[in-house]
Amino acid sequence: MSLLVVGSVALDSVETPFGQKEDVLGGSATYFSTSASFFTPARIVAVVGEDFPEAHVSFLKGRGIDLEGLTRVPGRTFRWKGRYGYELNEAKTLDTQLNVFQTFSPELPAAYRDTPYVFLGNIHPELQARVVDQVRSPKLVAADTMNFWIQGSREALLKTLQRVNLLFVNDAEARQLAGEHNVVKAARAILGMGPQRVVIKRGEYGALLFEKDHVFACPAFPLAEVFDPTGAGDTFAGGFMGALATATSDIDSTVLRRAMVMGSVMASFTVEKFSLERLREVTHPEIRARFAEFRKLTHFDDLGPLER
Question: CA within 20 to 30 Å of 271's CA: 1, 88, 220, 226, which one?
């Protein structure tokens, strides 16, 4: 089934201890759709400026991503510049230029309005709600958010969460949104705000999935080299949602666990190189092989008798 993402397409400048890149392809919708495109047809609603390279458009088209909703307008493309230290846990933002993204008001093409799976990228919660207004009977609506919206647009965010089936947040955002230091308590509080499921991303420590009566912990794949964690969270969400969209059964705990692992698989590839360089070259056999490695990492037999 097809999958719609509404978010940013950007040009990033990234510095890590292992090198730096200027004006490379980035943005939440870019990472998400590229990751999801390995599993299901993806559609983008986003805006770019006159300076956005045609080569990037060709790359997205080459992944089979539907770009009818990608609008090019006069002005400069959204730009972000950040630096990571050796721990690579969080970027220090050096510069943000919203440019044409500042006036982004998502309008879905008519062909997009029946898309069954919808992902609301990290945009203002009022814009996220506007997207929900435009889709007809989606099977699942997922959303991302960030500390900026949690702090500055909390009322609008809480209204949007009542219309969302699944929320992706990192552990710090979950604590801030819920007002709870403990992640488990925070997840339970967020479930009470509307979403039926919450995925809490924990970077190098993996991710946690919470439902009313179900919790699943997925590790991050152990890598010998990590070059650039930019976009890992959006790549995770793209792999997760792509796996859900290809499920042949109802979304149950088995399907969700598989989606969690697939999200971690795709994120593990992203961080191995800068920008989307690794996702440009990864193959389906590599994805299957790493998924199999995850099964080995997490498999163990039942506990035998403890009596002595």
Answer: 1
Closest CA to 129 of 101, 147, 153, 148: 153
DSSP 8-state symbol, 65: -
Tokens 């950007």 -> residue: 10
User: Can you read off the two tokens belonging to residue 120?
Assistant: 């609301």
Burial class (CB in 10 A: 0-12, 13-18, 19+), 201: buried
List the chain residues with pLDDT less than 50: none
Q: Which amino acid is at 169?
A: V
d(CA 13, CA 25): 9
> Which burial class, exposed, middle or buried, applies to 92 when counting CB atoms under 10 A from its CB (0-12, 13-18, 19+)?
exposed
Q: Which phi-psi region, left, alpha or beta, contains residue 175 (left: φ > 0; alpha: ψ -120 to 50)? A: alpha
Residues 256-289 as b/e (b if ≥16 CB within 10 A, e otherwise) read: bbbbbbbbbbbbbbbbbbbbbbbbeebeeeebee
Nearest of 272, 303, 269 to residue 286 by alpha carbon = 269
Query: What pLDDT, on the 0 to 100 scale, is given for residue 203?
Result: 87
Residue 87's pLDDT is 78
Between CA 159 and CA 168 the distance in angstroms is: 16
How far is 89 from 58, CA to CA, in rounded Å? 32
Q: What is the pLDDT of residue 308?
A: 67
Residues paired with 169 in a beta bridge = 200
> Which pLDDT does position 188 carry in this prediction?
97
Percentage of the residues of the chain whose pLDDT score is greater than 90: 86
**Residue 74: what pLDDT?**
97
Give the count of beta carbons closer than 10 Å to the beta carbon of residue 307.
Answer: 4
What DSSP character marks residue 101? G
Which tokens go with 303? 């506990």
The CATH code of domain 3-298 reads: 3.40.1190.20
